[in-house]
Write a structure and sequence with these properties.
This protein has 8 helices and 3 strands; from the N terminus they run αααααβαββαα. The protein is mainly α.
Length: about 170
């Protein structure tokens, strides 16, 4: 049983080689198998070759279906994400618009903002802004760090006429 579990964990390129080889041994005409001196091997291990062929081919088909599903699912999810991000940017309040506008007007798209401000925390939570760096020296009486505007925000604003009017 342990060997069978290990067989299931083989990489797809090995599984495809096993599938092709076992399928060829089972499905090639007797004349070709005889020329390859494999007739006795096929007669002796034909049942095992059939199991290997069926299992490896089934796993490959399932992997292929999963890859195709993931491709289309990711494509759909990406479109939905772009749509929801654009919708959010169109519906945000004026205070957040002013903050994002300040980021856009800065050539480096960075600003020093207070880390305990509610608007900053919300924009950071929604991944609209991100701290620029990992370690920050902060004055605890006035805790401020440098944030940068995420590239997707600039892209959504640049690609939508309504958002360009709102933020520029």
């Amino acid at each position: 049983m342990k060997d069978f579990v290990e067989f299931l964990k083989l990489p797809p390129n090995i599984l495809s080689a096993l599938s092709v080889a076992s399928g060829a041994m089972l499905l090639l005409p007797d004349e070709i198998i005889t020329k390859l001196y494999m007739m006795e091997f096929r007669d002796k291990y034909g049942f095992l070759l059939g199991i290997i062929f069926m299992v490896s081919t089934s796993i490959l088909i399932i992997l292929l279906i999963a890859k195709i599903y993931n491709y289309f699912h990711n494509k759909k999810t990406s479109k939905e994400l772009v749509k929801s991000q654009t919708k959010y940017l169109k519906n945000i309040n004026q205070e957040k618009v002013e903050i994002i506008r300040a980021f856009i007007n800065n050539p480096t798209h960075t600003l020093i903002l207070p880390i305990n401000d509610g608007l900053v925390i919300e924009l950071q939570h929604l991944q609209i802004i991100t701290p620029a760096g990992q370690n920050h020296l902060v004055d605890m009486l006035n805790p401020e760090i440098k944030f940068f505007l995420q590239p997707w925000v600039i892209s959504r604003i640049s690609n939508d006429e309504e958002l360009r009017k709102k933020f520029y």
